[in-house]
Amino acid sequence: MQKAPLIWTNILVFSSTFLVALVAVPWYAIAVGFGKAEIIAMMLCLGYCGMSITAGYHRLWSHKSYQAHPILEFIFAIGGAFALQNSAIHWASDHRVHHRHVDDNDKDPYSARRGFWFSHIGWMLRDYQGPDHYTYDNVRDLQKNKILRFQHKHYLALALATNIGIPLLLGVLLGNLWGMILLVGVLRLVLSHHFTFFINSLAHIWGKQTYTDQNTARDNGVLALLTYGEGYHNFHHLFEYDYRNGIKWWHFDPTKWLIKAGSWVGLTSKLRTCPEERIEQAKAAMQLQHAKARLSALPDAEQILHKIELEYELLLERMQAYYELKKSLLLQRKQQLQSSLQEHYAELNIQKQYQELKALFTEQRRHWRRLTTELA
């Protein structure tokens, strides 16, 4: 079978920058040394590139999980060119195909089932997708965006201007041209590339399947540190339109924090989140599945399994009652200003029921977690 043709531009860019980062950067650090200014500049530029990909290319344009002010869109478009990961239209097209056909070796452009190397970088070294890939039929909504059309049309010029111009400008301003070229120009680019590539590779290999096992995506807090919150990938693949990846307050997800902070100053709006009930149901279903797998080898598995299933059904029952009443309470609060005194008393009654159901649900969830933990 004939192999797909090599993409020499990508091969040269990836290999040359990696070799310079591997050899020249350490040599310069030992022979000359980098100052605080170069290191800080590199970190800021690395963050700018990374967040432009995660908050812009990924959550804004690929999944439309929120809306952004044109100023913010423009900032992300320039940062995406600086990250040197193709135009937002091209990137989002690939990513939407990935989600639609995840783990399908014939259709997923960076299927993890084809191995770490392929999903990490190999898929970009050969033209596996062919000329039909560049029709961009699945991103027609993005082609209506003037900023994205401009970036796509002038991507090469923007990529060269940012990747050459920014390091040179910083080098001239701060008086260390070669230091800025090596750190901001090369090392920043290599780290930005591979941190993003980890989402396609390691995030489908290393971690926990917290919410679903219908695909290879994993949740991994360590990867979240390197990918600006994208490491909670199992959650993302099941609830892809949620603007968050790390849903708990302690989850490291600076992309989520940026999007949320933007809503306070009018830069972002219409932030989409998945209902809590669906998230809890998915998590409980996976816990039940894991418990069943652990119990299968025990001699009294049938009896324990029956108990587990009864607890699971009770959990779902109380969960449904809790969230239904919570929705009613929220609706009541929205109508509070128009409510009469009689309706106010009714609300107090609902609040009492809500607290009781919440306590029952919380206790049942605690009991469920304790039970499944004991079986681990």
Distance between the termini: 47 Å
The succession of helices and strands, N to C, reads HHEHHHHHHHHHHEHHH
| Strand order in space, largest sheet | 1-2
Round the Cα radius of gyration to an integer and report it. 25 Å
Number of domains as seen in the coordinates? 2
Q: What's the overall average pLDDT, rounded? A: 91
Share in helix? 55-70%
Pick out the low-confidence regions.
none
Sheet with the most strands?
2 strands, antiparallel
- Report the sheet-strand fraction: under 5%
Structural class: mainly alpha
* Outline: globular
DSSP summary, beta strand count? 2
User: Helical region count?
Assistant: 15
In short:
This protein is mainly alpha-helical and 376 residues long. The protein has helices at residues 8-31, 36-62, 70-83, 88-100, 116-120, 140-143, 146-153, 155-174, 177-200, 221-226, 233-238, 254-264, 276-295, 301-334, 341-374, and strands at residues 67-68, 268-269.
